[in-house]
Amino acid sequence: MVQILEGVAILGAFTLYMIPSIEADARNRDDAFAITLFNVLLGWTVIGWIAAFMWARHSTTEKRLTHLVTRTRRAVARATIDKLVVHAAQRGALQQRPIVGKLRVRSRVAVPVRQS
Fold first, then answer.
1. Which of 10, 22, 25, 110 has the least C-beta neighbours within 10 A?
2. 12 within a domain of the structure (yes/no)
3. pTM of the predicted model, to two decimals?
4. How many angstroms separate the Cα of 5 from the Cα of each of 8, 14, 25, 28, 56?
5. 28 domain-assigned
6. Which of 23, 11, 12 is CA-nearest to residue 50?
């Protein structure tokens, strides 16, 4: 009877130890194997077990990835717009600058062609 209780206790402790791995597998996570390795190797520390458990419980949705892509695109767009605004301001400043010194005017005047 004692051996049966010891076996049940060991099985219960092992199940409790592997809860993060079981949770990751139940949620059909793509990185369930990585969570299991992390749990087996570092789960004996309380912090490692808690980290594996939180990792298994944390959802990875397409919404988060879509949000990241959207934020990246907006940042690139803002940088591009800022560069365009600076460039336009510089061109405007160059065109409005007063002309100091000699002014060279080139004009195309029709030169009469001599016919002989």
1. 110
2. yes
3. 0.50
4. 5, 14, 28, 33, 30
5. yes
6. 23
Task: Domain of residue 65: give its range.
Answer: 61-90
pLDDT digits (tens, 9 = 90+) for 24-74: 999 888 889 999 999 999 988 999 999 999 999 987 666 677 888 889 999
Residues 6 and 29 in one domain: yes
Number of domains comprising the chain: 2
Taking 60 as the threshold, does the pLDDT of residue 110 lie above it? no
CA angle 104, 105, 109 (to 5 degrees): 145
Q: What percent of the chain has pLDDT over 90?
A: 52
pLDDT computed for residue 31 by the predictor: 87
Tokens 């001599």 belong to residue:
114
User: Using the 8-state DSSP alphabet, how is residue 101 labeled?
Assistant: S
Contact between 48 and 42 under an 8 Å Cβ cutoff? The reply is yes
The per-residue pLDDT of the chain, averaged, comes to 83
State whether residue 62 is helix, strand or coil: helix
Any domain includes 115: no
Helices (H), the chain: 2-17, 19-26, 32-42, 46-57, 62-96
